[in-house]
């Protein structure tokens, strides 16, 4: 459910997006009124972009603002805890990867850790709260056996457990929910949607060209995660897409065009590109989005989800945002072209 905070003003929305861009230039101390910053900071936390926002305003003279100092001190404590968890997760990810590799189990570390290390110039801008591992379906049982040897415990509900339907298993190190590893055989967890768009290990290997085009693989994962996983409910989902888009070379676009066509994910890619163009209008060189759209042979985008809908996914504009984001999900499941790979 939404909270009671009022929606951001247009200037506050622009400020939030400028601050959320990890590679955006620094802001001058007089770039915004001090009164603008408190609601922007709360929105940054809601949209999971707080670390980069705090980094970018660290040098701006706000120390005499009591509300800001109270918020900052609390956020610093939270970030220290999250950094410790991220470090522990990275260590556990190395253990799991080593064990899977020694056992000859195919796998890929995706989303949080991969994005932080390979897409963000400062990995601390992209903390993550779990380990995401993508596996072939045939390897899931063996991977589960390996997780047990590493002292991980699988979390399953006693009744109405959806692990099988969602193609996702949750494992906690020593039963600890704060050190969570998720084994996925498809990162699209909604069965009804998976009949239209699916993304398992084979699709991931196709997207990254067997390892030749890692940026293309990250781009498709970011798009699927944002558009088919979470319905664009946080700004950070689009920051991931932005960072992946920055890594795309013209050569990788030729490979990516074939991937997008074979997976039939044109609506998801087109919608994601439209949103980063609207949310971060100065982040990419002029005309770059058009170059990418043309190279991927994308149709005109029916702009169901708007930048405003993303920014209003929490707070006062929640219900309008939810309507638009669910309208896009309805379009994905009923009207969009069907996929041609995977089962």
Brief digest:
The protein has helices spanning 10-20, 37-46, 50-57, 66-102, 112-118, 140-149, 163-166, 191-194, 201-207, 214-229, 235-246, 250-263, 266-279, 288-295, 307-311, 318-334, and strands spanning 108-110, 130-134, 152-155, 168-173, 176-184.
How would you sum up this structure, described in words?
- The protein is α+β, with helices and mostly antiparallel strands and 343 residues long.
- The chain has one domain: Beta Polymerase, domain 2 (2-Layer Sandwich), CATH 3.30.460.
- The chain is 54% helix and 8% strand.
- It has 16 helices and 5 strands.
- The chain has helices at 10-20, 37-46, 50-57, 66-102, 112-118, 140-149, 163-166, 191-194, 201-207, 214-229, 235-246, 250-263, 266-279, 288-295, 307-311, 318-334; strands spanning 108-110, 130-134, 152-155, 168-173, 176-184.
- Strands 1-2-5-4-3 form a 5-stranded mixed sheet.
- Helix 10 packs antiparallel against helix 11 and helix 10 crosses helix 13 (266-279).
- It is globular and about 55 Å long.
- The relative contact order is 0.12.
- The mean pLDDT is 89.
How many separate helices?
Answer: 16
Radius of gyration: 20 Å
Enumerate the strands of the largest sheet in spatial order, edge to edge or round the barrel: 1-2-5-4-3
How many domains?
A: 1
Biggest beta-sheet profile: 5 strands, mixed
Sum up the overall morphology in one term: globular
Order of helices and strands: HHHHEHEHEHEEHHHHHHHHH
Helix content: 40-55%
What is the CATH architecture term?
2-Layer Sandwich
* N-to-C CA distance: 34 Å
Number of strands: 5
Which segments are poorly predicted (pLDDT under 50) over 5 or more consecutive residues? none
Structural class: alpha+beta
Would you state the CATH class?
Answer: Alpha Beta
CATH topology: Beta Polymerase, domain 2
Mean pLDDT: 89
């Amino acid at each position: 459910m939404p909270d009671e905070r009022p929606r951001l003003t247009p200037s506050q929305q622009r400020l939030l997006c400028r601050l959320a861009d990890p590679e955006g230039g620094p802001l001058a101390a007089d770039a915004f009124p001090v009164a603008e910053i408190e609601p922007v900071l709360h929105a940054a936390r809601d949209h999971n972009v707080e670390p980069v926002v705090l980094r970018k305003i660290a040098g701006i003279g706000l120390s005499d603002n009591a509300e800001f100092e109270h918020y900052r001190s609390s956020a610093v404590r939270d970030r220290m805890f999250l950094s410790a968890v991220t470090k522990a997760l990275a260590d556990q990810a190395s253990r799991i990867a080593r064990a899977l590799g020694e056992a000859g189990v195919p796998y890929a570390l995706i989303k949080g850790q991969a994005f932080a290390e390979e897409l963000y110039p400062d990995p601390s801008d992209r903390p993550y709260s779990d380990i995401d591992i993508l596996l072939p379906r045939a390897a899931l049982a063996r991977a589960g056996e390996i997780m047990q040897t590493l002292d991980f415990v699988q979390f399953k509900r006693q009744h109405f457990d959806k692990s099988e339907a969602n193609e996702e298993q949750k494992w906690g190190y020593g039963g600890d929910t704060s050190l969570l590893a998720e084994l996925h055989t498809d990162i699209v967890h909604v069965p009804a949607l998976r009949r239209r768009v699916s993304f398992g290990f084979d699709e991931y290997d196709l997207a990254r060209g067997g390892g030749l085009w890692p940026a293309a693989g990250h781009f498709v994962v970011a798009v699927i995660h944002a558009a088919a996983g979470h319905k664009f409910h946080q700004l950070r989902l689009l920051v991931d897409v932005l960072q992946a888009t920055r890594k795309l070379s013209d050569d990788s676009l030729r490979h990516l065009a074939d991937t997008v066509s074979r997976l039939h994910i044109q609506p998801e890619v087109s919608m994601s590109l439209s949103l980063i163009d609207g949310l971060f209008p100065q982040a990419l060189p002029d005309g770059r989005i058009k170059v990418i759209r043309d190279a991927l042979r994308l149709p005109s985008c029916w702009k169901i989800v708007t930048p405003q809908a993303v920014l209003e996914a929490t707070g006062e504009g929640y219900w309008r945002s939810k309507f638009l984001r669910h309208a896009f999900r309805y379009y994905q499941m009923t009207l969009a072209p069907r996929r041609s790979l995977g089962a």
